[in-house]
Predict the 3D structure of the following.
Amino acid sequence: MFTGIIHAVGKIDSAKPLAEGMRLTLDAGALDLTDVALGDSIAVNGVCLTVVACHAPKFEVDVSAATLEVTCGLREGGFVNLEKALRLSDRLGGHLVSGHVDGVGMVMAFEPRGESWFLRICAPDDLPRYIARKGSITVNGVSLTVNQVQGDVFELNIIPHTRAVTTFAHLEAGAPVNLEVDLLARYAERSREWGGD
């Protein structure tokens, strides 16, 4: 589990094909790897991945073909948001995030508005029912609050600090982004489908 509070921005140094999937070597940037062990989970642009090698300041992860098919932003040379897994003693500064991407959205607008930045995203067809005004959503691993929703389009406000300490510093209209809806919304939908018994 994660919180959606980004610990550092890293960079994918290499992406080497496997029989099925890819092995990524990442430069962790400012992420402290001293307490990271083999088998630990790190969210990379919102994707929960398992550490298979660690040699600070770099670590390696394997990404399955199935994960590559439903995510974006895991390419060589790309900058990525990084977050180590939540410990039970940690503060929950964002919201509960599983690191299981629900779909890839498209940035329709990302522009300054006052001191902050206005972000508009179009969600894939199966996700809008889980997105609610003032609800939580994760965009490329960043925990955010939804300001408005209309159909499959939702809007967010990005404060200067968030833009400065995440890959949002490089975000622009037309970019794909990993989306994870709020866990509670998913369980509520499942309960409704089951009939509430």
In short: Residues 183-194 form the longest helix (12 residues). The first strand starts at residue 8 and ends at 17. The chain has two domains: 8-84, 103-194.
